[in-house]
């Protein structure tokens, strides 16, 4: 009996050890890629790639993190890098943390190797510089459009009392094609897009802004875009692509998707009709949609 008791103790001890080591393994296997906001961010990058909006390193995505999301990620932060000036300032974003895609990095690769293709940056107390606290490994940097993203975040956060958190830039082919054909005005683009699909006035009742062709990646285009973002959720970059803003990934991706799909319909209709349009959604139709769906259309764009 003494031998049997000893055997039982050993088995019990063995079980405990096994259980403990299993538990320990689960704890150490948890990583930043298990944090929901990081997973959702990566999913949006993959979704954009699958839409065909991100050839090579085209496009970029930034997300202003909630304090609790920063705390979920903080255990995985490394010693912060050097502060790097952005050339623009957004005082209301001092001390914030952003998820960002890397400059020259491919959306196609984000899910395969997040740590080299995306990262988290912290903004300094003056709102004018960033430093890397996670990811962007082996010398990578935030997107070259970070100044534009940052200024857009600054004005969208101010305009929405902090509700807007996402800025998304994509190279949407049909919308880019439109910028060779239509006059580069907010009115021309908004009307063409609203008339291209019945849901459009409901999804972006405020319309879209248009930035004329400018050199990408610097402070000038950042300031020009953010001026428009005071008023619009989306800004077209002539011969380049589109910037969209929103409170979360679904809404922002949905806005990009809706605008690009409307642009595709516009291009198809123009091509099929060889520029001759027999009928379209009238301004009275647009007003009726707005009334039914309880949205206020930007009257400046209606006749
Ligand atoms: P990045 O690779 O620096 O993000 O640039 C891509 C892009 O779309 C520039 O407008
Ligand atoms: Zn671009």
Please explain how this structure is put together.
- This protein has 303 residues and is of the alpha+beta class.
- It is built from 12 helices and 9 strands.
- It has helices spanning 2-29, 36-51, 67-73, 107-110, 114-117, 146-159, 173-178, 186-194, 200-203, 219-229, 249-272, 283-293, and strands at 60-64, 84-85, 97-101, 118-123, 129-135, 166-170, 209-211, 234-237, 241-246.
- It has a 9-stranded mixed beta sheet with strand order 2-5-4-3-1-6-9-8-7, sandwiched between helices.
- A hairpin with a 3-residue loop joins strand 8 (234-237) and strand 9 (241-246).
- Helix 6 (146-159) packs parallel to helix 10.
- The longest helix is centred in the first third of the chain and has 28 residues, at 2-29.
- Zinc ion binds at residues 58-59, 169, 171, 216, 240-241.
Summarize the structure.
By secondary structure, the chain is of the alpha+beta class. Helices cover 46% and strands 14% of the residues. The protein has twelve helices and nine strands.
- Mean pLDDT across all amino acids: 93
Number of strands: 9
Describe the global form: elongated
C-alpha Rg (nearest Å)? 24 Å
Proportion in β-strands: 5-15%
Structural class: alpha+beta
SSE order, one letter for each helix or strand = HHEHEEHHEEHEHHHEHEEHH
User: What compounds sit in this structure?
Assistant: 1,3-dihydroxyacetonephosphate, zinc ion
- Major β-sheet profile: 9 strands, mixed
Helix content: 40-55%
Task: Please report the distance between the alpha carbons of the first and last residues.
Answer: 97 Å
| Low-confidence sequence ranges | 5-27
Name the strands of the widest sheet in spatial order.
Answer: 2-5-4-3-1-6-9-8-7
Count the DSSP helices: 12
């Amino acid at each position: 009996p003494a031998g049997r008791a000893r055997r039982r103790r050993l088995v019990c001890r063995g079980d405990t050890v096994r259980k403990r080591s299993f538990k320990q393994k689960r704890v150490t296997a948890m990583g930043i890629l298990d944090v929901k906001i990081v997973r959702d961010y990566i999913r949006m990058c993959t979704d954009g790639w699958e839409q065909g909006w991100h050839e090579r390193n085209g496009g970029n995505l930034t997300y202003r993190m909630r304090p609790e999301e920063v705390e979920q990620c903080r255990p995985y932060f490394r010693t912060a890098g050097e502060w790097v000036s952005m050339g623009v300032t957004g005082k209301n974003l001092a001390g914030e943390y952003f998820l960002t895609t890397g400059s020259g990095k491919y959306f196609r690769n984000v899910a395969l190797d997040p740590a080299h293709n995306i990262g988290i940056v912290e903004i300094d107390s003056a709102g004018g510089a960033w430093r890397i606290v996670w990811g962007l490994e082996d010398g990578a940097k935030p997107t070259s459009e970070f100044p534009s993203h940052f200024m857009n975040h600054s004005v969208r956060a101010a305009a929405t009392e902090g509700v807007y958190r996402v800025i998304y830039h994509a190279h949407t082919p049909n919308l880019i094609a439109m910028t060779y054909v239509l006059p580069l005005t907010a009115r021309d683009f908004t009307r063409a897009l609203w008339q291209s699909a019945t849901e459009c006035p409901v999804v972006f009742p405020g319309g879209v802004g248009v930035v004329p062709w400018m050199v990408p990646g610097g402070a000038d285009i950042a300031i020009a875009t953010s001026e428009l973002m005071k008023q619009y959720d989306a800004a077209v970059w002539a011969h380049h692509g589109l910037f969209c803003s929103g409170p979360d990934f679904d809404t922002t991706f949905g806005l990009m998707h809706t605008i690009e799909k409307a642009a595709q319909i516009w291009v198809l209709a123009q091509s099929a009709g060889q520029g001759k349009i027999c009928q379209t959604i009238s301004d009275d139709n647009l007003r009726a949609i707005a009334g039914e769906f309880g949205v206020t259309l930007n009257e400046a764009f209606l006749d």
